[in-house]
């Protein structure tokens, strides 16, 4: 009887892949709840059934894919709840504090569950650029969102300065060689360069951030796209080499130009040009090292 009931239960799971409520089970199977509970517990132990806690505090059951059953085998109700909360967080992940508040479990218990789920490669920890070294947890095969990783311009949650400088140089050179290009041209070129150099694929947001940086550096500038297209005059933006370089304020190169105690500096004060170590070093520079 139990094997027959188990097959009926699994057939019902196939019919409702999003999950079975207790009411659906009672109405559809027509067996005593005691017998059904035994089947459910047996399937959970085998890793073939997942427990789902619904917002209305009811419980549903969902069949686990055969290829994942070994990972879920032996997990308890608490494990499934934390897994479900992490699954709901999608690609932004869940903080341990969020898991604690949503589940009501103690931190020690949550830490133990997270280690279990990580060891089974059901979830993974990802460092978030938004909060230093703090981690968020998401499903193992989930690709973290850009707001978590920072995109391809970040390496190990910090700006990859060397990579950024190389990409900026490519943008500057490309615009100078072409004379005037639109954003689509830059995307096509830079994606090709990035994939050939690092096998990375830059997104439009990453490329736009790089272009903006090159503009701020004064190497390229925007201009209105007045070319004629198939649908008439275009209204986009072109990028061209900058004709007017950004002027250099040499006063800022002097220690006095960015001194935080400039306002209290005087000839006879505690802070004075005579006692300033940085001013002395500046005056001792060779003429070639001074940028005038």
From TrEMBL:
<protein>
    <recommendedName>
        <fullName>DNA-directed RNA polymerase III subunit RPC6</fullName>
    </recommendedName>
</protein>
<dbReference type="InterPro" id="IPR007832">
    <property type="entry name" value="RNA_pol_Rpc34"/>
</dbReference>
<dbReference type="Pfam" id="PF05158">
    <property type="entry name" value="RNA_pol_Rpc34"/>
</dbReference>
<dbReference type="GO" id="GO:0006383">
    <property type="term" value="P:transcription by RNA polymerase III"/>
</dbReference>
<keyword id="KW-0804">Transcription</keyword>
<comment type="similarity">
    <text>Belongs to the eukaryotic RPC34/RPC39 RNA polymerase subunit family.</text>
</comment>
<keyword id="KW-0539">Nucleus</keyword>
<comment type="function">
    <text>DNA-dependent RNA polymerase catalyzes the transcription of DNA into RNA using the four ribonucleoside triphosphates as substrates. Specific peripheric component of RNA polymerase III which synthesizes small RNAs, such as 5S rRNA and tRNAs.</text>
</comment>
<dbReference type="InterPro" id="IPR036388">
    <property type="entry name" value="WH-like_DNA-bd_sf"/>
</dbReference>
<dbReference type="GO" id="GO:0005654">
    <property type="term" value="C:nucleoplasm"/>
</dbReference>
<dbReference type="GO" id="GO:0005666">
    <property type="term" value="C:RNA polymerase III complex"/>
</dbReference>
<keyword id="KW-0240">DNA-directed RNA polymerase</keyword>
<dbReference type="GO" id="GO:0005737">
    <property type="term" value="C:cytoplasm"/>
</dbReference>
<dbReference type="InterPro" id="IPR036390">
    <property type="entry name" value="WH_DNA-bd_sf"/>
</dbReference>
<dbReference type="InterPro" id="IPR016049">
    <property type="entry name" value="RNA_pol_Rpc34-like"/>
</dbReference>
């Amino acid at each position: 009887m139990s094997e027959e009931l188990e097959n009926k239960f699994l057939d019902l799971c196939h019919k409702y892949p999003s999950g079975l409520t207790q009411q659906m089970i009672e109405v559809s199977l027509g067996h005593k709840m005691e017998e059904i509970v035994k089947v459910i517990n047996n399937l959970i132990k085998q890793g073939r059934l997942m427990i789902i806690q619904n917002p209305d505090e009811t419980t549903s059951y969902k069949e686990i894919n055969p290829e994942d059953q070994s990972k879920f085998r032996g997990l308890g109700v608490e494990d499934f709840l934390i897994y479900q909360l992490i699954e709901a967080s999608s690609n932004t992940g869940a903080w341990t504090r969020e898991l604690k508040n949503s589940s009501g479990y103690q931190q020690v218990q949550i830490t133990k569950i997270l280690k279990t789920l990580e060891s089974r490669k059901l979830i993974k920890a990802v460092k978030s650029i938004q909060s230093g070294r703090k981690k968020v947890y998401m499903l193992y095969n989930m690709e973290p969102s850009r707001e978590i990783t920072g995109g391809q311009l970040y390496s190990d949650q910090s700006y990859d300065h060397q990579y950024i400088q190389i990409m900026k140089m490519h943008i500057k050179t490309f615009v100078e060689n072409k004379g005037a290009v639109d954003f689509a041209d830059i995307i096509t070129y830079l994606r090709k360069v990035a994939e050939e150099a690092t096998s990375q694929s830059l997104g439009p947001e990453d490329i736009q951030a790089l272009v903006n940086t090159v503009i701020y550096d004064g190497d390229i500038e925007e201009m209105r796209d007045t070319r004629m297209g198939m649908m008439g005059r275009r209204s986009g933006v072109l990028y061209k080499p900058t004709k007017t370089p950004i002027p250099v304020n040499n006063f800022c190169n002097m220690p006095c130009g960015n001194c935080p105690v400039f306002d209290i500096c005087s000839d006879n004060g505690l802070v004075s040009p005579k006692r300033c170590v940085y001013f002395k070093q500046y005056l001792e520079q060779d003429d070639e090292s001074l940028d005038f």
